[in-house]
Specification:
It is built from 13 helices and 19 strands. The protein is of the alpha+beta class. A hairpin with a 3-residue loop joins strand 10 and strand 11. The N and C termini lie far apart (about 125 Å).
């Protein structure tokens, strides 16, 4: 178990002159009052007229004043996370605090003082380059949570993305663009693109206030080089660098309209984050349900807050007396977070779920053969192929997920259709029995008053009431029950007069007329049947549409598989062309080497011939000089 590392950073006091919002000094002014914060290396306490206030002393791993640079904070708090991420541990670093306290400056920095995110990006590639015995594949994504909706900052129009969970990937955002990168410059360009798409706004406390939480995620996969066993483990780690929007008080920010709505969502998500930290800081026996799912921020950072990750929190605070209550709340949050423990482990997998393993067998030989002037072009080609394959795999997963949802929907519709059919048959049966037993229309079947006799009788009739499917009620009831109708009602049975039980003579009083109106059924059977048939037809149509959609998705899935296969073929063809080109270059190189050897031999022969000729010329010159000397001597000797 490892506790979360927590540090607190105080920004410089506000000056009376407006400053750039991207720097740690923000616009506004603050007066010095009777209360102030006393800061040392690891402790913070509140003083009132130089006297410590009880219950306001806090101790943390590190405490930074306004003179500390981002590089120093990164070295003390985040560099160990980067080393761990390269080694296979999940890592998370985020800034927390009130609005206008320096969170974005701490995470992003400026040109003169780079923040934690750019420093971490460069450090990751430098650390990976030092690990000569491992091969790395790094991909990045950038998202924001704006008004509790997840937007992709690297793709315009990609908004309201859903959160899913699987055994292999854990909690992830579906449809989020992931870009495979080879160097830090590519990542910094993507960061600039994401910052341009992020939501910012102006309030009374900050000219450029962050209106959304952002999560910059790097997935680092690595495997041992020159591994021969396909079952060798691959390390997959996730590094989250989070810039949270600041908590706000409407009375101070003066927010209204859109800014007010944004502030409500920001405060709600930060409140849920505080609730999660409170639950995690409690004792295990007293800890109740942890509300990760109440907010998308805590849902995405679930493993970082209380699971398999190394986590560092930088809490930023304002030193002015007017912000003492907000600063105290930030310090209380930091104090509770310091009690949370995580269990970080190296993430190693033995399946082919990692993207690196799926691509390594196809490109490792090609990477070894990259030489000469074509290496840069081939590196770009490999990067493009990797990104295309990764996008096709993500699209295939998305389509498979939609196909599964369509199948579940189709099964649900089929189940509902079967239930409605059974319900329709059951309702038809109930309606027939009910109509026969309770409808006022049966009153017409009684013997009219004109046929009443003083002697009443009871006849034993057939048991047609028990068979609802063969109701004897005729479709058109008349006002007089004649003999044919009696025969029809008794299914052709003839009344046995011996079965008649006569009663004593008595004068039957006349029946009073029934003045009450016939109470109609709540819904006629024809209308109900028509409604049920319409609902069944609608369900059948939805089922057909679902089947057509499933067919379309299956076709799209097949097309993606074909596209993936074509990409693999292109990669294989590129590899083959590279091999062929290399063979040609090797042959040309051998030819040039043989020519060079021949040229060296010619030069050697020429040098020998030149040396011999030079020797002849030297001897000739000597002889000529001797002859000239002799001639001069002969002339002098003559009188």
């Amino acid at each position: 178990m490892e506790k979360i590392s927590v540090a607190v950073r105080f920004r410089p006091p506000k000056s009376s002159v407006d400053a750039d919002a991207d720097s740690p000094s923000f616009s506004g002014g603050g007066a010095v009052g009777n209360r102030e914060w006393r800061i040392d290396d690891s402790g913070i306490s509140l003083l009132h007229r130089a006297v410590p206030v009880p219950g306001t002393s806090f101790v943390f791993d590190h405490v930074f004043n306004e003179s500390v640079t981002n590089a120093r904070i990164y070295g003390l708090l985040v560099r160990s996370l980067i080393r761990g991420a390269v080694d296979g541990f999940n890592g998370t670093a985020f800034a927390y605090g009130q609005t206008s306290s320096g969170k974005t400056f701490t995470m992003n920095g400026s040109g003169a003082d780079p923040g934690i995110i750019p420093l971490a990006v460069r450090d990751i590639f430098d650390t990976a380059a030092e690990a000569a015995d491992r091969e790395f594949l790094i991909r990045v994504s950038y998202m924001e949570i704006y008004n509790e909706e997840i937007n992709d900052l690297l793709t315009l129009g990609s908004e309201k993305l859903p959160i899913h969970e699987s055994l292999e990937r854990g909690v992830y955002v579906s449809g989020l663009r992931e870009e495979i990168v080879n160097n830090a410059e590519q990542v910094l360009q993507l960061l600039e693109l994401g910052e341009a798409n992020r939501h910012f706004g102006e309030t009374n406390m900050n000219v450029r206030s962050s209106r959304s939480h952002t999560i910059f995620r790097m997935v680092i996969e690595s495997s041992a080089k020159h591994q021969t066993n396909s079952e060798d483990a691959i390390r997959v780690s996730i590094l989250n660098l989070v810039d949270l929007a600041g908590s706000e008080r409407i009375a101070k920010t003066g927010a209204d309209g859109v800014r007010l709505k944004e502030g409500k969502h920001i405060n709600k998500s930060l409140m849920i984050l505080g609730n999660v930290i409170n639950k995690l800081s409690e004792n295990g026996k007293q800890r109740g349900h942890i509300p990760y799912r109440d907010s998308k921020l805590t849902r995405i950072l679930q493993s970082a807050l209380g699971g398999n990750a190394k986590t560092s929190i930088i809490c930023t605070a304002a030193p002015e007396e007017i912000h003492i209550e907000e600063t105290r709340g930030t310090l209380q949050f930091a104090s509770r977070a310091k009690c949370v423990s995580n269990c970080a482990q190296v993430n190693e997998i033995l399946t082919d779920a990692a993207l690196l393993k799926r691509q390594k067998l196809e490109i490792e030989e090609l990477r070894k053969k990259l030489q000469g002037s074509h290496s840069e072009v081939l590196e770009q080609l490999i990067l493009k192929q990797r990104n295309d394959m990764h996008k096709s795999e993500l699209e295939r997963d998305r389509l498979a997920m939609e196909l599964e949802e369509e199948r579940r929907l189709r099964e649900t519709l089929e189940h509902r259709l079967a239930e409605q059919k059974m319900s329709q048959n059951h309702n038809d049966t109930d309606i027939s029995v009910e109509q026969f037993a309770d409808s006022s229309q049966l009153d017409i079947l009684k013997t009219p008053d004109s046929k009443r006799t003083p002697d009443g009788f009871v006849a034993s009739r057939s048991r047609y009431l028990k068979d609802a499917e063969f109701s004897p009620i005729p479709e058109n009831l008349g006002s007089v029950a004649d003999e044919d109708l009696w025969m029809q009602l008794n299914k052709g049975c003839i009344t046995d007069l011996d079965m008649l039980e006569m009663t004593s003579d008595f004068k039957c009083p006349p029946f009073p007329e029934d003045t009450t109106a016939v109470v109609p059924l709540e819904e006629p059977i024809d209308v109900r049947c028509l409604r049920l048939e319409t609902a069944c037809s609608s369900d059948r149509q939805q089922l057909e549409d679902s089947k057509a959609r499933c067919t379309t998705l299956e076709k799209e899935l097949e097309l993606l598989k074909e596209e993936n296969s074509s990409l693999r073929q292109e990669l294989s063809k590129s590899k083959h062309d590279t091999d062929h080109e290399k063979e040609g270059l090797i042959k040309e190189l051998e030819t040039e080497r043989s020519k060079m050897e021949e040229l060296k031999q010619d030069i050697r022969l020429f040098s020998q011939a030149f040396s011999q000729r030079q020797g002849h010329l030297t001897s000739l010159h000597t002889k000529s000089k001797a002859i000239v000397e002799n001639c001069k001597a002969s002339r002098v000797a003559l009188p």
